[in-house]
Amino acid sequence: QWLSDRKKRALQKKDVDIRRRIELIQDFEMPTVSTKIKVSRDGQYIMAVGTYKPRVRCFDTYQLSQKFERCLDSEVVTFEILSDDYSKIVFLQCGRFVEFHSQHGHYYRTRIPKFGRDFSYHYPSCDLYFVGASSEVYRLNLEQGRFLNSLQTEASESNVCDINPVHFLFAMGTAEGKVECWDPRTRNRVGLLDCALSSVTADTEIEGLPSISALKFDGALNMAVGTSTGQVLLYDLRSSNPLIVKDHHYGLPIKSIQFQHQLDLIISADSRIIKMWNKDTGKIFTSMEPEHDINDVCLYPNSGMLMTANEAPKMNIYYIPVLGPAPKWCSFLDNLTEELEENPESTVYDDYKFVTRKDLENLGLAHLIGSSLLRAYMHGFFMDIRLYHKAKMMANPFAYEEYRREKIRQKIEETRAQRVQLKKLPKVNKELALKLIEEEGEEQQMSKKRKQKNLPSLLKDDRFKVMFENPDFQVDEQSEEFRLLNPLVSKISEKRKRKLKILEELEAQGQEEEEEPEGKASDAESSESSDDEKGWVEEVRKQRKLLRQEEKLKRQERLKEDQQTLLKPQFFEIKEGEEFRSFKDSAKKQKLLKKTLEDRLKLEEKLGTLNVSDTTVGSKQATFKLKKSEQQKKQQEAEKLHRQERKSLRRSASHLKSRRGRGRLFH
Questions:
Q1: How many CB atoms lie within 10 A of CB 364?
Q2: Closest CA to 184 of 256, 129, 249, 258
Q3: What is the mean pLDDT of residues 480-501?
Q4: Please, which of 50, 561, 602, 622 could form a disulfide with 34 given CB 3.0 to 4.6 Å?
Q5: Protein fold of 22-342
Q6: Cα(491)–Cα(654) distance, integer angstroms
Q7: How far apart are alpha carbons 37 and 41 in whole angstroms?
Q8: Of 173, 165, 99, nearest to 131 (Cα)?
Q9: Cα 480 to Cα 493: distance, rounded to the nearest angstrom
């Protein structure tokens, strides 16, 4: 609260919870506000209603996304899923309307005489029991499709109702703070509980008459009742006195009550807090305070998942592994929680340190309680981190030195345990063999922790023996493929080369090293490995840059070689029938290619190879003629002369025939 907005944004970026946040179901939200949320009996569909505009959304857990959305005419007070899936739904709306939906959508709509507040479905008789702003309980039979005789109660108004799943006892909570129990078979009242009187204890302060705001059965004999003043009462139906009275201490109406059977917990919620407490002792198990007000709470069956409808667009999903396993459609949450337990990370503020009262007494700062130097928060205080370090140095000036020595000793022991003890290395691929030995040592340590069997070593496998004996299998570290596929090979190879050098010295001397070489810190390798992980992109860029420089040097060398070599003249023979022309034709072609299309078309029109004419429709028609080579032109001229000679011969022959015919006639 006292941090600036800029620091809050910076903390959000560093917040572990925000970084680990997972979106289980895509777009699991409402436009403005969500009011009710329920899960189908088969566990596949989650349905929620909200505003604005009034609508219902169905989410498919198998697809982890929204299945459908239907808009309604008025806001939904509550709803009930009658079938195992989403095929039969009943909505009680604020305009006294009762709307039925089937799998395809809207099915039927009717109206009750008074404004409804809650309803329950009686499975044996297919009756809907509606309670609201009336002394009557309206019954609508879904098999016959008509209203039956209503139940007449002593209450002026009723807020909630529920039906026992075992013996189908109908119970309703009234505005006067009483619970009336009815037998649906005889339609007679069989019991009356005065919860308003029982909720008043010595520890509670109540303003006004508490009315019943929540009601829930558990099994055949237990029933939990929530009041408008923030108390939860657990009853045994055989007694009129509550077993436990639990106060939320907020004075807000109880919105929802759920039973968790694995740990015998009751999950009760008002608009501000969700409390989980033991139903036998009343001891608090845990509590959650969301950022926005709560409208409804839904516990996913047989799991530790909790969903809430809030006064905000986003509907929250909480997973508490202690309550039960994750649902089968998000079973990966169990693995995530196990990893988080193995690597716990606590949220630490940059400028403030959280201390308890005991820590302040140990530091000698208990006299600062109540001053501006300490900010009270939960069970302790926030204090400036600089003041905390100064006080700790004064209280124990040698604490940091002792801590540093202990850390150095631990690092030395770790390196001694992980040190590679080798007598001989193969002649070929020494660095690869050293890498395999290091990885084998790491796998052995991991297998010991996980109690798994060790995998066979690659060095001892006969199938890969030639790889460390034949020089043809030597890895070329200067090749382009190797350097690009292994961006960190430079640093890793340097590290291994140092180890190889040390091992060769030990082999020459016949001694084994017992202590670390001087001048090297115990955590040098860990820091190098962390730098390697962070800077692999830079290493790839460096390798690419080096490759480009090498290619440039190679090109320059080739150019020098080309300049040094003398070029000899070459002669080409022209085919028969072709004439040698100058290089002007190629220059003309290049000039033509540089010209625009319009200029080329105009030039071709002048040469006669293009003919552009208008058509009757109003468009343009272009006709092209292919250019002919000199040889083709000569051939065409020769053919033309030949045709002309043949025509002249035919004419002369026909002329002679005609003359001969005339001579015979005269004769």
A1: 11
A2: 129
A3: 63
A4: 50
A5: Methylamine Dehydrogenase; Chain H (2.130.10)
A6: 103
A7: 13
A8: 173
A9: 16
Which 8-state DSSP code applies to residue 29?
B
The 3-state secondary structure of 85-151 reads CCCCEEEEECCCEEEEECCCCEEEEEECCCCEEEEEEECCCCEEEEEECCCEEEEEECCCCEEEEEE
Greatest CA separation found in the chain?
165
Tens digits of per-residue pLDDT, 541-586? 777 788 788 888 888 887 777 776 655 666 666 666 555 555 556 6
pLDDT at 479: 73
- pTM, 2 dp: 0.51
pLDDT band at 500 (very low <50, low <70, confident <90, very high): low
3-state helix, strand, coil in the chain (%, to 5): 35, 30, 40
Report pLDDT digits (tens) over 44-76. Answer: 999 999 988 999 999 999 998 999 999 999 999
Mapped onto helix, strand or coil, the DSSP state of residue 599 is helix
**H/E stretch holding 432:** helix 430-450
d(CA 379, CA 358) in angstroms, rounded, equals 11
* Phi/psi at 632 (5° precision): -65, -40
Task: Give the separation between CA 325 and CA 235, rounded to whole angstroms.
Answer: 29
Type of residue numbered 541 = R
Q: Look at residue 534 in the predicted model and tell me its pLDDT.
A: 56
The answer to whether residue 209 scores a pLDDT higher than 70 is yes
Q: Beta strand pairing status for 284-288 and 274-278?
A: antiparallel
Length of the chain: 667
**CA 426/CA 9 separation, integer angstroms:** 56
Residues β-bridged to residue 262? none
Q: Residues 127, 142: contact at Cβ < 8 Å?
A: yes
Mean pLDDT of the chain: 80
Please, are residues 146 and 105 in contact by the beta-carbon 8 Å criterion? Answer: no
**Chain center to CA of 67:** 19
Give the DSSP letter string of 513-567.
--SPPTT--TTHHHHHHHHHHHTHHHHHHHHHHHHHHHHHHHHHHHHHHHHHSPP
Domain ranges for the chain: 22-342, 347-410
Residue whose entry in the numeric block shows the structure tokens 């006892």: 169
What is the phi/psi pair of residue 458, to 5°? -75, -30
- List strands edge to edge, sheet with 170-174: 158-163, 170-174, 178-183, 188-194
Contact 495, 524 (CB under 8 A): no
Strands across the sheet with 274-278, in order?
Answer: 256-260, 265-269, 274-278, 284-288
> Which pLDDT score, from 0 to 100, does residue 122 have?
93
Amino acid type, 332: F
Confidence bin at 492 (pLDDT 50/70/90): low
In our burial notation (b when 16+ CB lie closer than 10 A, e otherwise), range 293-323 reads: ebbbbbbbeebbbbbbbbebeebbbebbbeb
In sequence order, the 6+-apart residues with CB closer than 8 A to the CB of 157 are 132, 133, 134, 135, 174, 175
Whether the CB-CB separation of 340 and 20 falls below 8 Å is answered with yes
The pLDDT of residue 518: 44
Which stretch of DSSP H or E encloses residue 38? strand 33-39
pLDDT of residue 614 exceeding 80, the answer is no
Tell me, what's the pLDDT at 412? 83
